[in-house]
Amino acid sequence: MSEALTLSELLGERLTNREQAEVESSGLGSDGRLLALYFGCSWSPPCRQLTAALADFYGRFKQGEHGDKLEVVFVSSDEELKPWLDFVSQMPWLALPFPDKERKVKLWSKYKVTNIPSLIFIEGSTGKIISRNGQLIIRDDPDGSEFPWGPKSFGEVMAGSLSKNNGQTVDSSALEGSYVGVYFSAHWCPPCRSLTRVLVETYRKIKESGQKFEIVFVSADRSEDSFKQYFSEMPWVAVPYTDEARRSRVNRLYGIQGIPTLIILDQEGKIITRQGRPAVLNDIDCIEFPWHPKPVLELIESNAMQLNEGPCLVLFVDSEEEELEPAKQLIQPIAEKILSEHKAKDEDPPLLFFVAGEDDMTESLRDFTNLPESAPLLTILDISRRAKYVKDVEEITPAIVEEFVKAFLKEKLKPEPI
């Protein structure tokens, strides 16, 4: 696949500028060039604030030595043309044309955008994500001196002293050779406090079993006093609250979109899973530590939030427990194939895979998505796009699952609205 084709698939062949003149997108895809995808809308005060800050950054960057190596593309969620035109007229960069709403939705889905404003830096030649936290880049590097903001290792970003809650410090090199949980949390967040209580027991059990496991708390507290109060409950280490630059770099490294988030790293500092929260909550006895991702998950309350993160294949079966395991085995081959292919490219998989029995939560999901009551029922749900794809047949085989997934990935399925 050529670079120009990759970019035209992402953005379409033509973009528009503030004067509504067309600009060819293919020229933006040369090697070494980055694109910043700015997801926002005219009616949001935070978007207007980011537009002003980004315009300042963009103006300075264009005057610098790498000025020709970055372009911004606005991806709007505006529903009305006039506010969009007024907003785009204030922008010195490019925008997706207003009528191209389907492509906007695809970009939201591809880059797993969950809120606005969102600023995502990607490679122009491949579409690969450089940073999900572009707002932090323009705040922390206002002159663009760290361009091209490529990903650094965990060890590089974490380097320095770490705090203990007794006032002592240790060097980050003490983490070497251990599994590490990077814990983004804050005292003001009730789900964070609930997870912390469970995580303290999890940490104790794993340490008592003799395994090398450490946790690093990266605070999103709003004051140092709140941080100290919260950290006093934690038996692990933290990035010092006063080291705001390092906390920001760690947030940038992992593209943190919300809290609580627990990322589990292997002994070399590579990501095992970003889903540490449901992993811990579903494994109170720590039997599955360090929680390597399972190709197929049983849909339960603690992992249901993942349905909002992108397209998910869900195979609905009867409620009996003995139905769930055969259902997992049915979709396991294609799930493993998709997972391994994208892991080799260091990419997130384009689909998550679930089996669902019959319980209150599943019934609520069926009602919300207006699915038929039949079982088995093979579906792909893309809740962020409010789209569903349904394969309602009497017998579901591995071949049917694979054909369904391949057709979805090639965009050959027609979505139904949720």
From TrEMBL:
Entry's Gene Ontology molecular function annotations: thioredoxin-disulfide reductase (NADPH) activity
Reaction equations catalysed: [protein]-dithiol + NAD(+) = [protein]-disulfide + NADH + H(+); [protein]-dithiol + NADP(+) = [protein]-disulfide + NADPH + H(+)
GO cellular component terms given for this protein: nucleus
Cross-referenced InterPro entries: Thioredoxin-like_fold, Thioredoxin-like_sf, Thioredoxin_domain, TryX_NRX_thioredoxin_dom
Source species, domain of life: Eukaryota
PANTHER family reported in the protein's UniProt record: NUCLEOREDOXIN
Name by which UniProt lists this protein: Nucleoredoxin
Organism: Callorhinchus milii
